[in-house]
Design a protein that fits this description.
Blueprint lengths: L16 H4 L6 E7 L4 E7 L2 H15 L12 H12 L3 E8 L2 E10 L15 E8 L5 H15 L7 E7 L3 H9 L3 E7 L4 E7 L1 H5 L3
Parallel strand pairs: 5-6
Antiparallel strand pairs: 1-2, 2-3, 3-4, 4-5, 6-8, 7-8
Helix pairs in contact: 4-5
């Protein structure tokens, strides 16, 4: 398996957009996997083209008046726009063979509500996915692993943390297959979830 990742130029900045997203390139990670007849890529989210795609995914998975319309609600685009402009979170798109299969959020957990439920460290970054309907798990393992390899290439990233709803067996299996280890249960007013933590060592152990 090829382990080459195309990591583009990195501006010198302490903010998350500086280290993780180049202002000159829209691509972040690319892997060609000829043995699987796949190419894996991750790039910065593009509001005009990606938000309608994400909205369709959400419409497929959820029902309700907010999603009962042909175009994405303005609030959804504003949410991603705010994230792009922030210094503590960034949205990405994951693609397999140039087809979008997931949206990836990366954020500093010390500046997120998740830090209320576990002892967050300065080098902790959260990872959250919005998946395309009928996403193939084996492909997603390759894509998430590529993301982790990229994020861990930055010394300021100490651990990657994921908060997965306990009853979502598909996503729990996905994250465990990528090197995440269960840390604790989190109970809120609206869900019970498992907190997973991935380190460089636990990711390396999966290869």
């Amino acid at each position: 398996m090829s382990t080459e990742s195309a990591v583009f130029s990195v501006p010198k900045s302490l903010g998350i957009r500086g280290p993780l997203v180049s202002v000159e390139e829209t691509g972040v990670v690319f892997k060609d996997l000829p043995e699987f007849n796949l190419s894996i890529s991750v790039r910065a989210l593009q509001l005009a083209t990606d938000v309608p795609v994400i909205y369709k995914w959400m419409s497929y998975q959820y029902a309700g008046p907010l999603l009962d319309r042909d175009v994405p609600p303005r609030e959804l685009e504003e949410s991603y726009s705010s994230m792009i402009e922030s210094d503590f979170a960034q949205p990405f798109m994951g693609l397999v063979n140039d087809v979008p299969v997931c949206q990836v959020d990366v954020y500093k957990t010390q500046q997120d509500a998740l830090s209320l439920y576990y002892p967050a460290r300065p080098g902790d970054y959260g990872l959250q996915l919005v998946l395309a309907p009928l996403a193939i798990q084996n492909n997603m393992v390759l894509l998430v692993t590529a993301c982790l390899e990229y994020f861990f290439s930055f010394p300021e990233v100490g651990r990657v943390v994921a908060d997965i709803e306990t009853r979502n067996e598909w996503t729990n299996t996905l994250f465990k297959s990528c090197g995440f280890r269960s840390s604790q249960k989190i109970r809120t007013s609206y869900k019970t979830s498992t907190l997973y933590i991935c380190t460089r060592n636990s990711l390396r152990a999966m290869h």
